[in-house]
């Protein structure tokens, strides 16, 4: 039962009369942890649904959720949560390693999916793919095949 966690989120994000900030953002660092603690996928999805109603609809804010996924994973419960979140998200940032394996100058790629289809238009979703390199204090993004090592 994740009701106590939801109650904590709701009371923490509900502004008091003296608060001047608008549009709260709820960051959930790793939703997969709730599954590993014994919560069912339905309970986790209900929790996110109630958070979405409270934060997005009532408080006019946003929710950012991190979920770990692996295409080769046999964790069906986690994949159910990931797929459901993808179907209900406006923006998906899908970060993965390179399909070709390790590279010294490119550490992975990020796929940015803007879900236009949620607005019930005939337009397809907008997908952008960038590669990245993680450095000491920043991350460098570049178009696929355009890293400094290639050029």
TrEMBL record:
Gene3D superfamilies: P-loop containing nucleotide triphosphate hydrolases (3.40.50.300). GO terms for biological process: tRNA wobble uridine modification. Pfam families: ELP6. InterPro entries: ELP6, P-loop_NTPase. Pathway: tRNA modification; 5-methoxycarbonylmethyl-2-thiouridine-tRNA biosynthesis. GO terms for cellular component: elongator holoenzyme complex. Belongs to the ELP6 family. This is Elongator complex protein 6. It comes from Anhinga rufa (African darter). The lineage of its organism: Eukaryota, Metazoa, Chordata, Craniata, Vertebrata.
